Every structure is written in C-alpha cells, then in structure tokens.
Amino acid sequence: MSEGESHILLPIALLNFFILITGKLVCGDSLETDKQLLLNLKSFLEDQNPIDRGFKYTQWNPTDLSPCKWPGISCNTTSNRVTGIDLSDNSLAGKLFDNFSSMTELASLDLSKNTFSGSVPTDLGRCQNLKFLNLSHNIIDGEFNWTGLNKLEVLDLTMNRIRRLTIPEICDNLVVANISSNNFTGEIGKVFDQCWNLKYLDLSCNELTGNLSLRFDKLNMFSASHNQFRVFLPSWIFTQHCSLLVLDLSQNLLFGELPTSISNCKGLLKLNLWGNSFSGSIPREIGSVLSLKELSLGSNNFSRDIPDTLSGLSKMVFLDLSKNNFGGEIQEIFGQLTQVRFLMLHGNSYIGGIVSSGIPNLVNLSRLDLSDNQFSGPLPVEISQMKGLEFLILAYNQFRGNIPSEYGDLLKLQALDLSSNRLTGLIPPSFGKLRSLLWLMLANNLLNGEIPPELGNCSSLLWLNLANNQLSGSIPSQLASIGANPMPTFLLNREKDEVSAGSGDCFAMRRWIPADYPPFSFIYPLLTGKNCRSLGGNLFKGYVLVPVCEFGSNVRKYQVPGYIQLSENKLSGEIPPEIGKMKNIIMLHLGANEFSGRLPLEIAQVQPVVLNVSKNKFSGEIPKQIGYIKCLLNLDLSFNNFSGPFPASFGNLHDLSKFNISYNPYMYGSVPETGQMLTFEKSSFLGNPLLHLPSFMHNSTDNTKGKLNENHKRQPTKVGALLVILILVVAFLVCGVMSLLVCLVIKCPRYTPGNLLEDTQGRTDFPLSSGVSSSRMSDDVKVIRLDRTSFTHSDILKATWNFSNDRIIGRGGFGIVYSGVLPDGREVAVKKLQREGIEGEKEFRAEMEVLSRNGSGWPHPNLVTLYGWCLDGSEKLLVYEYMEGGTLHDVITDRTRFTWKKRIQAAIDVARALVYLHHECYPCIVHRDVKGSNVLLDKDGRAKVTDFGLARVINSEHTHVSTTVAGTIGYVAPEYGQTMQATTKGDVYSYGVLAMELATGRHAIDGGEECLVEWATRIMGYGKKGFTRAMIPVAVLVSGLIEGAEEMCELLRIGIRCTAEKPYDRPNMKEVLDMLISIPSSHRGSTRSFGSCRSSSPLL
C-alpha cells in the first residue's frame, strides 16, 4: 500500500470508528431503552399496588418487540421513540416514579385521577421535552419545582395538596396552567409574568391572599375563586388590550366599586363576582361588553340601581343578582331583558313588582328564582304566559291562596318549588300534563283536598315532596306511575351545554335534598361553592347515581335516587298494592298520617333505602317481604297497630342502620338474636309488651307480683345452691390448671415466630356451638395466632362458655363481643362478626392477612392487640386483648371524673394510633369508623383504638375493595357521598369530631338543633383560613372552670381544622399529633393569634 493511500484510508477508518461509536451511543437513547424504562416503571408500580385491579401496565409484555402498542403508551412514528404515557383513572397508589427523565423524548405524561401521594420527584423537573403534564386528582403534597420544564405547554395539578410551586424564569411555551384546589398560600406576585403565551390560568380553591397584580392583556381565562383576596380591584388591571373571555373571582373578600374599566374586556363571555363585598352601582359601561353571556353579581352589596344598558347585551342568557338586599318592588329593567334565559333574584327582600316589572313577558326565560323574598298575596297567574319556563322557584315567601291551575300549562317545566308559603286549596289536576316535571316541591303550606290521580301521568317526576300540609283522602293508585321514565328529560338536558341546569347558588339545591336520610345525607354536604352548580347540572341530567339492591338480592345496581315525601298530612285509607310498581324511588316517607289497614306486601318491591310509615293506623302483620330489601338502611314502623309475630326475615337486613318498631302493642314473638337486630337499643322496641326482646335489652314486660314473691321466697335456696356450685367449680379449676400445666410441659410443641397457622384436625374434645353453621368439630378449625402462645377454636368456645349470653360484654354494627379467659390466663374479648354467608370468606381472609401480616398482633401501645382470628365457613371470630376501662364514648359526658388532662391524653393516644396506621404501615390502613365507641380504655385510663380495618372486612361481601361508605352518621366526612371511597383524610375528619366531643363533653349527635360540627364551627367562627377572634365562654367547654379551659379551647380548634369541608384543607395525623403535643407546653394560659377563650358564660 502506497503512502498516499495510507493517508486517505486513515481518516476513513477513523470516521467509520466514530460512526460506530456514535451509533452505539444513539442506541442507548432508543426505543429499546424506552421499553426497559417502562418495564422498570411497571415493576415500581407493582411493588406499590400488589393487588391487580385491571391496571393498564399489566398488559405490558416484556417479550413484545415494541412498547408502542402497549395500553397507555404512544410513540412518534418518525423518531420511533416513546412520547406519551397515559395511566389516568387507573386506581393507582403510592409514590411517583423517579426516572421519567430517562425517556428523553417523553412529551406527554398523564397520571391524573389516581391516588398518588408524596412529593413530586425532582427527576420529573428534568423532562426537558415534556409538553403536557397532568397530575390532577391525586393526593400529591409538598413542593413542585419545574424550572427545567421549559417546553411545557399544559400543566394540570388540580385537586392535590401541593403547597409550593417553583416555575422557570422563562416559560414562554406555557399555555394552560391549572393549580386549583391545592394548599397554596401567600401572594401571587409576579410568578406568571414571564409566561407570555399563558392563556388559561386557574388558581381557584386555595388560600391565596394579597393583591391581584396580574394584567389581563394576555389571558383568555382567569379564575381565582374561593380564595382569600381582600382587596379592591384596581382599574389598571383591565387594560385597553384586555383579552379575557372568562373571569371568575367569586367567593373572595373583594370590596369597593367594580371598576368601569371592565368594559375594556370586549370579548368577555363570563363574569362571575358572586360572593364578595362589592358596593356602589353596577357600572353602566358593562353594557358595552356586547359578547357577555353570563353575568353573576349575586351576594354582594350593589345598590338597587340597575343600569338600563344591560338590555343591550343581546347575548346575555344568565343573570344572577341575588342576595344584594335590593328591597322594595322588582326593578322594571328586568322586564326589558328579553334575551335572558336564567334570572336569579332570590334573597333580595323584594315585596312585590313581579307583574309590574314585566317579568311575565320574558317568554324566553328558562329559569326564574324569586325565592327567599317577602312577596305576599296570590301567586301571579301571569307567570303561566312564560311557556319556556323549565325551573320556577317561588319558595320561602308569603304567597297565599290557591295554586293557579294555569301553571299546568307550563309544559316544559322540570322543577316547580312553591314550598314554605301559605298556600291553600287543592293541588291542581292540571299538573298531570307536566310530562317533563322532575321535581315538585309543595311542602310546608296549607294545601288540602286529595292528591290528584293525574300526577301519575308525570312520568319524569322523581322527586315529590308534599309534606306538612293538610292533604286528605287516600293515595291514588295512579301515583305508582310517577318517575317511571325520566330518561327523555335527562337526554334533553344532556344536549344543553351552554348553561347548567343547576346554575346559581346552593339554596334551591339544598331544599331538594332530604338531608336527614341516606343516601341524600351524604350528598347534602357536597352542595357547596364550586360543586353546587356542577352537581346540580349532573343531577338534572341523570348522572347522579346511587347503589341499590335488586329484590331479595345483595347485587347492587346504580340508579337515580328518587323520593316521595307525604309525611305530616291527613292522608287516610289503605296503601294501594299498585305501589309495588314504582320505579326509581329509594325513599318512601308516609309517616304522620292516618293510613289504616294492612301494609301491602308489594311495598317491598319498591326496594327503598328508606321506608317510614310511622305514626299511622296500620294493622295486621308486617309483610315479611320487607326483610328481603337487602339495601334497606332506615326502617320506621313505630306508632301503629301492627300485630302478629315479629318478622324473622328482619334478621336478613344486614345494612340496616336505623330501626324503630316501638308502640305496636299487638306485636308478639321474639326479636332475632342475629344480624343487625342485635345492634339496636331498647328504644327501638318500646311499648310492645308482648314482644320478647334479647336478654341483653332487659325485656320491658313486667313480671307479676306472684312471680316476684315466689322468686323472693326461693332466693335463700338459690344462694345456697350457688355456694355449692362455686366450691365445685373452684375445685375443678384447680385440678384443670394442674393438668394443663403437666400437659404443656410434656406434650405441647415449641412454636417459632413463623408458625402462625395451626391445623389441629382430628381432635374432638368439644363440639361447636349451635350458632355455627359448620358440622365439623371445633378443633378441625384453623386458628391464626399472632403471637407464640397457642390457642385453639375449642379454647375460644370454652372461654366464652360456648358463646353464652352471660359472657356478652358489648354489641355493635360489626357483631357481638364476648369476654373470656384463655388457658394461659389471658383475659380476651372475642368478637363474633355478624355477617353471614360464605361469599366473603376469601375477602375476609385477605383482609385478615393484611391485619396480621407482621405476625405480632400490631404491638402498638395505642392499638388494641389482636391475638388472632378464626374463619370457619360463615363464622368469623377475632380475639383481642380485654380492655377493662370501657369505651371512650361512655366517659365523654362525665365532666367531673374525666378531667381535661385525661381528655388531652386520650386525644394524643388516638392520634398516635392513627399516625401508626396512616404513616407507618405500608400500605396504610384506613380505619373508616373512628369514634368514641371504637376507642377502649385500659385500667390506667390510656386509650387504645380498636376495629381498625374491620369496616373494610365487613363491607367486602361484594368486592374486596369496598366502595360502600363505612362509618357512623355524625362522624363521616362529607366527601364520602361523592367518592364512596374511604381515605386517610376521612379518618382525620372523624378524629376531628372525636376531638370536639372531648373538648365539649357532648356527643356528635345528641338531639340538639345543631350537630356538634355545626355548633363548633359557629362558635369558633366561619373563617376559611384560621378562625375569627370568637370569644368562647368556658361554660360551653368541658371543664366549666378556668383551669383547663385554654387547653380545651385549643383542642376544639384542632377538631375544627380536622373537619374542614375540603379534604386537602385538613391536616394529616402527623400534623395533628404535633399540635396536640404542643398544647400543654405552649398554650396553657397563653393568648393565641387566631382566637381566645374567656371564663364568663354569656348566652350563645
């Protein structure tokens, strides 16, 4: 080879060498690398989610050549790289993956609608090509630093618990930022000033304060509603180049006059300033914003001078000027707003002017709300001219006279609320023409006559409330047809997207809810703030569904919750058997009338969740078919003349939470000593002398004097016999103990910590109790022990005297508790769960394996030790340590012996237990039923939590991960009604109620007009951030004395923080424990910036 060729080939060889190296390096950033990283992500998620719930990543097969067809994965066909990951709405939990940045071409990441927790890894901020990031609807907390995401265009963090956000100095690419419903505090400042292309910014539902220093010459949508802005709006923020389409500043503390410069926003479509303190006149200039469609200025202090320029807003369909205290006659300007379809003027103290203002001439009006004013006289018949009306709300006024029959000509009407007036006369039969009517509310009037059978033609009528009138006659059989087919109305509403059917505030929607009854009691707390409009809209579109049972089955189906309330009238006669044809009705309240005859057995076919026929004159036997309404929660048959035997089928009502059969003196027989019947107090059975109650209720039937005398004469004989028996028992015990010791020394094996499953088949020393369905002998049963000491099923039977009633020490919603002593001398409490059937065996076993996974019975000083559990077919037993101090519930009202120091200590003990369950167990345990009766006291008064995890066990008959709301009324967090899922924040809410009980010495629900949470919130003040300086009289606190008042005051404040309406506003249990521990040292006798106590006791 020549020297020249060598000079040529050398560079070529070097070039090939570098190409090879470069090729090798490119392969490192390849689809294969992306695939391996996705498999790493899969392993990471599997470790945190061991139970397969149909996750998308379970189908990620490592043998596939490419991951691009995997569920949730998208690729760029040009670069052949993974560019998108979508694992949204997949029930995932745990921490966030910390190596997304290694997928260097990742442009879209959607992990929304899961329950990811913890902070955002710093690695996520290094995904330099990320353009779309959605982490919304999780429980992520801490700080999010995304200074490295320079290419980000869409950021959605809504519904988390993030407290701090650090954004890049240059964020030119950002178009959408939604950080609503988090825990952000402080001022906005100039955080987003460098985001020149930002069009949509949502800061709502946080705790932001300070000035609104943003300029609206770039943004199209800005929402800062539900914050703490306490400023006046400067005119300069609405520049000549204002580009706003939507502005929502509702539910803040803004004051002063509305700047006339708002007219610079020529493209504005929606302006919502509801719920502030604006004053002065509504600026005339707003009439020049010709694009405006929705104007909400309600709940402010505007003057009653409405500018006539509003009539020029030809596109305005929604106008809310409610709660401005206008007074006097309705202004005539409203009669000129012919373009408006939704007009809200409720809560203004108007006294007249409905007709003179010209409102009846608004033929395009769809919704008219004039409720909560001071109108009087007859209902205006002229309203019947408004043929387009769908919602007519005239409640809470002083209207008198008859309901005009012409209202029946409003054929598009979907909701008619005339409640709480002074109306008399008949219900117009013409209402039968209202085929689209969903809601008819005529309660709390003086209406008389019969229920018109024509109402049966209202095929959409799901919600009928005629309570508290003077209606008479019988229920027409045609009424069974109401609500049979609401779907055409629902479909009609689903086509309307421009304005929700539930527009306006929550006043009307809350009247729709019968808040005292489930499942409505869970929906009611959700009707606040932002949720009200959306939830109202979903309701009238048929999207709000609740689980109900099919007849005679535990199988749940979902349906719209309809109800019929006819209580407190003078209705009479028999209930027509056609009532069984009713559809979609889950609550039937016929109480406080004069119905008579037999209760038709067909009533069970309605499948109600609530059935109340109390305070009538029903007679005959109670239909046994009621016992097959598997989802029945409330049943009230009291104050009637029912006769015959107590239905044994009532033992099948496993979901029943409220029951009353009192004062039916001709009922006889025995109340079943199984199922939920054992959980009710004697007050559910009063006034039934022929009814035999379980022994623990101490049957109220009086013995005759002869029997009393006979017992008195025989007493000495009985005492002598008892002494003889006692001596023999002691002798046998001594012999038994000696024999046991010998047996243990000679025969008993030595157990190792891993030997948790004892199989003792073949031994037949003691038969099973009659209450056990299995025919096997007791030592055939497997017992899971959580310590090294052996005990068998036979030992459990012996300890409880074969589950004798004499050993019963408690009853509850989960079962019966027996006391006993194991052969090794340990005092135990044996809980025999009440749910029958073998369907839940696998679920029970799985849950118990979770509870017993550490093999040591949860050796936490503030958790009742679980010694072991036993599963034999349908029989499920739990063996706990015995707590001799009773329950915390029993001593809460004892203001003398249960001192403030003991109360603080009990609060700390329970908090430590929940900290352990929430933060030190993996995965965490959600208690789901924190309350005083689930907190036991030892002999020294220290508190221990019991029943942790049991709510989940009991409700696992139908699914391992229960979506049925567990808990106790008064302690259940409001969000359970929407999510139907328990969370740690739900436990925090229940703990807050318990803290309030400890601080005040009263129970959560004690028969007062206000429940404890409502009362405490009112006393402490309604401030969203911190509390007002409410002066709390010591007399309302538990101590009643100056000593300890400050501590109880602070405990009450902690309870209020824990019961915040929004879950993300509640502290976690670690934070709660920190606050509790600091009470004795830092708050005794000190003053506090967010409230104070005093020792005087003025009237509340």
TrEMBL record:
Alphabetical UniProt keywords: ATP-binding, Glycoprotein, Kinase, Leucine-rich repeat, Membrane, Nucleotide-binding, Phosphoprotein, Receptor, Repeat, Serine/threonine-protein kinase, Signal, Transferase, Transmembrane, Transmembrane helix
Pfam families: LRR_1 (PF00560), LRR_8 (PF13855), LRRNT_2 (PF08263), Pkinase (PF00069)
Single GO term (MF): protein serine/threonine kinase activity
GO biological process, one term: response to other organism
Any one of the GO CC terms: membrane
Compartmental location: Membrane
Protein name as annotated: non-specific serine/threonine protein kinase
Name of the gene this protein is made from: LOC104228975
Catalytic reaction list: L-threonyl-[protein] + ATP = O-phospho-L-threonyl-[protein] + ADP + H(+); L-seryl-[protein] + ATP = O-phospho-L-seryl-[protein] + ADP + H(+)
Similarity-based family: Belongs to the protein kinase superfamily. Ser/Thr protein kinase family.
Residues bound to ATP: K832
Topological category with respect to the lipid bilayer: Single-pass type I membrane protein
Membrane-spanning parts: 719-742
Primary site of residence: membrane
EC number(s) per entry: 2.7.11.1
Signal peptide limits: 1-28
Enzyme class: transferase
Residues annotated as domain Protein kinase: 803-1079
